[in-house]
Amino acid sequence: MKIGIPKGLFYFKYYPLWKTFFEKLDCGVVTSPTNRKVLDSGVKLCADEACLPVKIYHGHVDSLNGKVDAIFIPRIVSIMKHEYTCPKFLGLPEMIKNSIKVTSRIIDTTVNLRGQHGDLFDFAMETGSIVTKDRYAIMNAFRDGLHEQHEFEKRLKECGDFESALKKDHDRNIPRPEKIAILGHPYVIYDSYINMDIAKKIQREGYSIITPQMIEDDIIRKYASKLPKRHFWTLGRENLGAGLSLLKCTDVKGIIYLSSFCCGIDSLMEDYLERQVARSSNMPYMKLVLDEHTGEAGFNTRLEAFLDMVRWREQNESNVSTHG
Ligand code: SF4
Question: How far is the CA of 94 from the centre of ligand 1 (A)?
Fold first, then answer.
């Protein structure tokens, strides 16, 4: 059986798990590269109000449609106890079915770990049983998938580069001491097409990068728990906790938040983080909002201006804010 995994959204979080799981069950796994054609078809097929990552996801489903036996579009309700993902993830299979005439089978099993009885194992069993009736094989495939996922996350923590961590050729060179943080959702900060290769551009300017996935989970939790209200969006909480944990790091010279136009979660969480940064530090901070109309020239200009400002402050102001 040939399974298509659209290269968007939680592909950038769980691809090693899903790929290993299906391959161990003797399935072929197919993805499609993100390019202009995928983006254009996604924009055409998807509702206008959706964010850029959801539009691109539509484009990937369209490009896999009919070329594989089944397309894996899980309904990811929750990946943490007492927390949720974004509403777009909850209704993703329905959204796709209403926008695209999908001829391949859709595998739309549900992941919901919010409550006491949520279990990732049930999800694996339900998904695997579409491919085989051998429960033992499903259990083994899932265990191997979790192992791959764990190893991948360790590599990503070291290098912050999704593709390198996936290919196991991550750079083990000693990183440059000065860092720029890139915050945002994994499918924005690791999709080099969406973010116009921002990490490479920053590295070319002489900085290392740091992303939320490079910070220990307990540190992110600790800082996120200092907020007056408990946040129940997993990705929002991770970005907030990561951002706050960096404010006292002297090797971090600036924070860039990559946000998607129309993202409800970012409109709250990013604004909250920006206020906290301004209130409790003098860390340079910039938000870049991306959509299908974002031009690379304007994007580069803003990035270059931000990095110039970071350098200028380091050299001329002893890191004191121009506001005093
Ligand atoms: S969290 Fe924001 S960017 Fe992500 S899918 Fe939801 S609306 Fe889109």
Answer: 16
Residue 165 forms part of a structural domain: no
List, in sequence order, the alpha helices (H) in the chain: 11-24, 36-45, 52-64, 87-90, 92-99, 120-128, 135-159, 162-167, 186-189, 198-204, 217-224, 234-246, 264-280, 296-316
pLDDT at 113: 86
Pairing of strands 28-30, 2-4: parallel
pLDDT tens for each residue of 49-62: 999 999 999 999 99
CA atoms of 32 and 223, how far apart (whole Å):
37
Residue type, 105: R
Q: What is the pLDDT of residues 135-175, one digit of tens each?
A: 999 999 999 999 999 999 999 999 899 999 998 876 655 56
Q: Ligand 1 centroid to 14 CA: how many Å? A: 16
Evaluate whether residue 164 is within a structural domain: no
Q: Which residues line ligand 1 (CB under 6 A)?
A: 51, 53-54, 86, 88, 185, 235, 260, 263-266
Question: 160 lies in a domain?
Answer: no
Q: In which domain, by residue range, is 209 found? A: 174-316
CA distance 101 to 65: 9
The answer as to whether 83 is a domain residue is yes
Domain check: are 16 and 147 in the same one?
Answer: yes
Are 129 and 183 part of one and the same domain?
Answer: no
Q: Answer with the one of 101, 124, 155 that is the final residue of a domain.
A: 155
Question: Tens of pLDDT along 165-185?
Answer: 998 876 655 567 899 999 999
Residues 198 and 57 in one domain: no
Query: Do 112 and 202 fall within a single domain?
Result: no
- The CATH number of whichever domain residue 92 belongs to comes to 3.40.50
CA of 259 to the centre of ligand 1 (A): 9
Q: Report the pLDDT averaged over residues 33-37.
A: 91
Give pLDDT tens digits for 252-299.
999 999 999 989 889 888 899 999 999 988 899 999 999 988 888 999
